[in-house]
Design brief:
Radius of gyration: 26 Å
Bound molecules: adenosine-5'-diphosphate, magnesium ion
Largest sheet: 8 strands, mixed
Oligomer: single chain
Structural class: alpha/beta
Helix content: 40-55%
Number of strands: 23
Mean pLDDT: 88
Strand content: 15-25%
Length: 721
């Protein structure tokens, strides 16, 4: 058997674009033909006219019809970027923003970061010449803090609106105000829709002057009107249309080949095992064609990836080989494009994806879909004020989107790993995120934008009053809001500037006072990525031993810091050696060293690298804010006290039977087996994450002294007792 290409080094596996000029011409020609054959190509002229004629346009079109990659180019060609203005396209997911930007840059034959670029949290590839800018919905919301009228943009395309992320929902509310304010600005032409009075948010205040939403009318300021395009893969555009006063919706006809959907006879106890069996069953029994597998997150993807790689060696010699390609949000961007490249000759590509591949990105070549039927979602209990991640069954709409991915280029097959009767029990569609998440982050941003009346804000769909109040209360307890619910200065204002969860922003601000900002920066970076450690089932003892040299008896936070610093030291040492030797291929060599070290220590090198990037980005913000980055050195007590002061809302006390009781919510929780404090006897702990499976597990746990809570968070703990 030939060795399977290792995806750890993408250069070896799927060949990058090293084409001769002849190849390049052929490739360009192929790409042009492919673009011309997309369903959207035949309605190009009409779509551009629709955008010109309507300030708000809703475009519904099946996944793969060309909405995301083509519409921005059509509008650019139609002159929407004259005067240096920008077409902004928002995506709910980071990977989509990056991969689509790369694809469009290639289609336009420009370098990424020039005319076409992307900007996501912790990674920006735009320049002053960028005219087509892909970004996450969350990032555009942040931009509004600096430029409330979004004056750089001539068109904003809110893509994947059916996903209904909390950022998309709030962004639409903000855009509603911006549209009105800009269409009424003196410089812009008053346009058709404002004459129709399409937007129901113009209201008189006590003095009789008009304000539009929370933005002042920009009299005297010169803004051209803004165009808003909302794109969705779901057929039901009514909610968006209604919200924008009966805005026009158009539908692009898609092309879908038949997909044969198969179910299991019985429910599967272990859906990862069932996934593995199905992948190999397809591989051995079905005709050539790539397989797309939907999993719930990085951890599952990586464990299935390892399992496939192990089993591939037992394939009969005559059969085609398999290459696995992961795609999930925190994957380093140079690896994300691997999913789109054709498999090498003689290989079948198995793409292991999160629900990113449902509608956000369209990967060519898929003929088989494996759908275990689950998705990881946020869930929020407003009474307890606890947000958690839960793995839940998909909705019917999601299941249909997933199976649809098999029929893009020809007839395909979808393997649902549950019995058919289960499908009927699924919810029709997913509940919008705004109804199942902690709102403190979004409220902080709205407050920073000047929206004081959160309950009165014109949401697309209102979150529950209880959730708003609980989140306001949390922000108040973190010191971000004053007694009369205004943004506090400087704490609240500084917290809103940081692109982090309010609780982490506050931890950084506090850490500068506790002299341990260096430690907290590493902590927050490491907590921002998924699964630093991995434990292959068959090597769990080895993994445990390897982990021991990083383990801190105090808990996971210091353990994570130990890992980060050990990697840093290793790289620094190697860098010194390599510099002395006048080495070429410097970056590649250090990468290789880091990967080897990670493998030996059962550390996820992808996550660690991501944490490094996050670290340097946050450090940039912190330094800009003038916070002092210093280390507490060996004084671990100081750091522990800072953790208690920062995460007092997530403290828990040991119960007689070994479980813990979360103090804020009263919930009974267990320490997750992956924690270094699993089986410890710590009396009082703080934690950062709640994960619900059959049990409520807490992760990232550190022991603290209960008295620190009453000393450092008296406003809360005095209230409790
Ligand atoms: P939509 O937004 O309507 O779902 P897209 O514009 O994302 O559709 O994709 C249109 C087509 O472009 C897809 O059918 C897919 O085959 C192709 N495509 C998109 N991104 C890439 C990529 N990175 N590499 C190769 N093909 C791509
Ligand atoms: Mg799209």
């Amino acid at each position: 058997l030939s060795e399977m290409p290792s995806m750890a080094d993408p250069r070896q596996a799927l060949k990058p674009n090293q084409h001769s000029s002849e190849d390049t011409i052929a490739r360009r020609e192929r790409m042009r033909k492919q673009r011309d054959s997309l369903p959207i190509a035949s309605v190009r002229g009409r779509l551009v006219e629709e955008v010109k004629a309507h300030d708000v346009l809703i475009i519904v079109g099946e996944t793969g019809s060309g909405k995301t990659t083509q519409l921005p180019q059509f509008l650019f060609d139609a002159g929407f970027c004259h005067d240096g203005r920008v077409i902004g396209i928002t995506q709910p997911r980071r990977v989509a923003a990056v991969t689509v930007a790369k694809r469009v840059a290639e289609e336009c034959n420009v370098q990424l970061g020039q005319r076409v670029g992307y900007s996501i949290r912790f990674d920006d590839s735009t320049s002053s010449s960028t005219r087509i800018k892909f970004m996450t919905d969350g990032l555009l919301l942040r931009e509004a803090l600096l430029d409330p009228y979004l004056s750089r943009y001539s068109v904003i395309i809110v893509d994947e609106a059916h996903e209904r992320t909390v950022h998309t929902d709030v962004l639409l509310g903000l855009l509603k105000s911006v549209l009105n304010a800009r269409s009424k600005s003196v410089g812009g032409c008053v346009n058709a829709d404002s004459k129709k009075g399409n937007f129901g948010i113009v209201r008189k205040n006590e003095s009789g002057t008009q304000s539009v939403g929370f933005l002042k009318q920009c009299q005297g300021m010169k803004f051209p009107p803004l165009k808003l395009v909302i794109m969705s893969a779901s057929l039901d555009a009514r909610i968006f249309s209604k919200y924008f006063g009966g805005a026009r919706a158009v539908h692009i006809e898609g092309r879908q080949h038949p997909v044969d959907t198969l179910y299991t006879l019985h429910p599967q106890r272990d859906y990862l095992e069932a996934t593995l069996v199905t992948i190999f069953q397809i591989h051995l029994e079905e005709t050539p064609g790539d397989i797309l597998v939907f999993l719930t997150g990085q951890e599952e993807i990586e464990s299935v990836e390892r399992a496939v790689k192990e089993q591939v060696y037992s394939l009969p010699e005559s059969s085609q080989m398999i290459v696995t390609v992961p795609i999930f949000s925190s994957l380093p961007s140079e690896q994300q494009m691997q999913a789109f490249k054709p498999a090498p000759a003689g290989y079948r590509k198995v793409i292991l994806a999160t629900n990113i591949a449902e509608t956000s990105v369209t990967i060519p070549g898929i003929k088989y879909v494996v759908d275990p039927g689950f998705v990881k979602a946020r869930s929020y209990d407003p009474l307890k004020g606890m947000e958690s991640l839960v793995i839940i069954p998909t909705s019917k709409a999601q299941a249909l989107q997933r199976s649809g991915r098999a029929g893009r280029e020809g007839p395909g097959k979808c393997f649902r790993l549950y019995p058919e009767r289960e499908f009927e029990k699924l919810e029709d569609s997913t509940k919008p995120e705004i109804k199942r998440c902690n709102l403190s982050n979004i409220i902080l941003q709205l407050k920073a934008l000047g929206v004081d009346d959160i309950i009165g804000f014109d949401f697309l769909e209102k979150p529950s009053r209880a959730a708003i109040i609980k989140s306001l209360e949390q922000l108040f307890l973190l010191g971000a809001l004053t007694d009369d619910c205004k943004l506090s200065d400087p704490i609240g204002r500084q917290m809103a500037q940081l692109p982090l969860d309010p609780i982490y922003s506050k931890a950084l601000i506090l850490a500068s006072q506790f002299n341990c900002l260096e430690e907290m920066l590493i902590t927050v970076a490491m907590l921002s990525v998924e699964s630093i450690f991995y434990t292959p089932r068959e090597k769990s003892e080895e993994a445990k031993t390897a982990m021991k040299c990083f383990t801190s008896p105090d808990g996971d936070h210091l353990t994570l810091i130990n890992v980060y610093r050990a990697a840093d030291e290793l790289l620094e040492k190697r860098n010194r050696e390599l510099i002395g030797k006048n080495e070429t291929n410097f970056q590649r060599k250090t990468d290789k060293i880091l990967r080897k070290w990670c493998k030996e220590n059962f550390i996820n090198s992808r996550s660690l690298r991501h944490a490094h990037d996050v670290h340097s980005q946050i450090r940039g913000h912190i330094e800009q804010m003038g916070l002092h980055v210093s280390s507490c050195g060996e004084d671990k007590l100081q750091f522990g006290r800072c953790l208690a002061a920062s995460f007092f809302l997530n403290a828990a006390l040991k119960q007689p039977e070994g479980a813990y009781r979360a103090l804020a919510s009263g919930q009974i929780v267990q320490i997750h087996p992956s924690s270094v404090l699993f089986k410890s006897k710590a009396e009082c702990i703080i934690f950062n994450e709640l994960v619900q499976t059959n049990q409520k597990y807490i992760r990232n746990v550190t022991r603290i002294d209960y008295l620190w809570l009453t000393e450092l968070a008296p406003h809360y703990y005095a209230m409790q007792s």
